[in-house]
Amino acid sequence: MRRVSVVAIALGLSGCISVGAIDRRAITVNDQVGMSQNQFVLLNLARASREEPVYFLAFDQLGASGTTDFRVGIPQVVLGPSVPVFNDVATVNPSGSTYLDNQTNSNFQMSLLNSRDFYSGLLAPLDLRDVNLLLHQGYSRELIFYLVIANMKVTVAPKDGSAAVPPRVIYNDPSDPDNFGQFQYFIKEAMEHGLTTESFLSPDDTGSATDDAASAGKPHKPRLADQADLCYDKALAIPNDAGDIAAGSFCGDKPDVRPSAEDTGGPLYVTLHDTNFTLHDQRLKIDVTTRSIYEIYYYLGRIIGSGRPVSLQAFNLPAEKIEAQPLVEVAIDRRITGHPGGDCFSSVRYENVNYCVPTEGAENTKRIFGILNALIALKQSTGDIPVTTTVHIAQ
Hints:
By secondary structure, the chain is of the alpha+beta class. The protein has helices at residues 2-49, 116-123, 128-135, 141-148, 177-192, 208-215, 293-306, 363-378; strands at residues 57-72, 76-79, 90-93, 98-112, 149-156, 168-171, 195-204, 223-232, 269-271, 283-290, 315-316, 321-322, 331-333, 344-350, 353-358, 389-394. 32% of the residues lie in helices and 27% in strands. The protein starts with a helix and ends with a strand.
């Protein structure tokens, strides 16, 4: 009976190991992949802070397996009439053996993202559809504006009989304090006036459905595609500032379905009445130029490398509360040995320098990591997954 109990316990232990290892290993793989993705982003930001090239890798396939082999040797049993008196049935020789082997292994595939299509997406400026996706994921509008806007061109609408005022281009460049101060002012006004994006539908004549219909002699009925446009949202604007916005510039003023993707319903106009602003009380048209993902990495890298943090401003808006926090926080430790001090959400050592994103705080930095990973994924296609090398890890 005792031997049976021992075998039952051992078998139960074996089952616990074989089943428990699967769920624990799955969580471990998930955790390690997340850590790797964050380190990929931080490593590229470290490179960008030194004006070095950035590189992108992707996990193509992950695999893990585990085996548990448990064996119990049957003890030697002697039966017969010469059994000792204290046991008239059998004599057991406990020379049996027990064998337990638990083996796990993992393998993964990675590829270098360097195809023509991938770099076309990486280097192309983000369009308003990308910006619209980000603005509707719960991120601060101000955070998205700082990341994606490269510059803005401010043009004064000419009045009857007056000479045209040359447009002014204002760059989102923290290394130029005067110009950057003007950029921050316009971001403040954009936030207080409720600048955002809205989506609309327009015909997409690039698909094969149109060609198939034409070849079959059917009426031309192009499919509709999602597009996006800038607008001012009354729900986001400070009530006293809503009167500064020209008619037709509010969200919802333009139809949901438009004849073409370029039909934005005309430019947006706003009038600023701040007497400290040189162009106050004049009707202004503001055109925004967006960055590429590639530029975003170097924009953030230069902020990290300069040691001069850029902080988001605090606003008391009707539908959006924003706290004054740094745009990106990465602690740098230039000691030759050791690791980044403190607790790090993500850390890498590159060229004998430690880079650490603090676990406590740095909320905007963590959000930026998620944004960059999402944007990179949006620019990948099937052609970006070449034949890869399999890395096998056995334990």
